[in-house]
Structure formats: structure tokens, C-alpha cells
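Deliverable D5.2: sample structural annotation.
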Amino acid sequence: MRSPGRFLLVVALIATIGILLQARGRSEVFPPRDPLKSFPTRLGKWIATDVPMDKDVLEILGPGDFLLRVYHPEADARPVVDLFVAYFPSQRAGDTIHSPKHCLPGAGWLPVESSRITLSLPGHGPFPANRYVIAKGGSRQLVLYWYWAHDRGTASEYWAKFYLVADSMSMNRSDGALVRITTQMNPGETAEAAEERVLPFANHVVPLLDTYIPR
């Protein structure tokens, strides 16, 4: 039986080689799209407040279009939901999507529970997403995130790289995005209860993605 580690290494190598080869080829296609700053500030009962991103963070992320917002329920200030979207128009020069499972520990958040769930949301077929419970001190947060490109969602960073190579060859495009939704967990709250709070918010987000992350 082939080891999963070897398979993942092969996928990563194929992705790297494919991107390097494509970088020498045709001019890349950049479809029209709306900037993320125009993403609606009201989603159902949720009202947004923009969060400025530190210059150091932007430099680490590299060239792209980024959105970081806190959405508050209209009738109550708590609990809030954070939305982060990172869109990269091109990943040919090595500016690829950073996985939250690597970035969050750097910010002091440690994973205490991880799983994958299937999201079945309006306007799109079912797709897998990552579900993490992270902790720092006495605080816990539920994090849902997935990779999104060309109307396709996946939880695996390795499959995202595979699709990056395939789309670069077939569509002459290497754009893609990360979508992350986070909410603070109340004391004693289960991950399932926090997920039930987040999913209605995700219902508003996914049908809008094609406007900002082209098919």
C-alpha cells in the first residue's frame, strides 16, 4: 500500500513543476471581478465592521486581495463572526495560499479538535471544509475554512494545489482563495452548537463568492 505521505509529496511536486512550466508559457488570464472591499457589509441579520490588517501580515501574505471583517448580529453584540477571505489573482510566482493550520499556532492559537465536515449551502453543491476548535489561554474559537477556486470548494491544501496545476493547464489561470469563518465559543459551548451558529452565516457567504472569486 502506498503511504499517504508519499502521495502528498508527489502531488506537491507536480504542483510546483506545473506552475514553473506554466510560468514560461502563455500570458495568464485574469477574469474581471469585484474587489473584496465591496463585499456586502450586511448579510441577513449580520452587520459588518472592517478590521484593518497589519502591514507585516500583508507582507507575509503577498500580492492579493484580502478581506477581514467582524459581523455582529443585528439584535445583539454577541457572539460575533469573523470573516477572512484571501484571494490571489496569480500563484505562479510562488505567492500561494497560506494554510490556517500553520498560521494559527504562530498567533498563539493551538488546535484542540479537528475534523472535516460537508457544507451543503445555497447555490452550490456539497463540498468539504475543515472544522477546528482552537484555544489560547481560557478562550476557545471555532474555525471553518476551505479553499475556493473557479466555483469549487475543497478542504485539502494538497487537492487545492492539484487543482491549481490542472486549472493552470486547462484555463491558463492560477487564481484561488481561502475562505475562513471564525466565532468565539461561549464557556461550556460544544463545537456542534458553535457550528450551528456559524452555518447560517456561511449560507449568506457562499452564494456571493463567484462575484469576487471568478468561476
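Annotation notes: Residues 70 and 82 are 4 Å apart (CA to CA). The radius of gyration is 18 Å.
The annotation will be released with the project's public dataset once the embargo ends.
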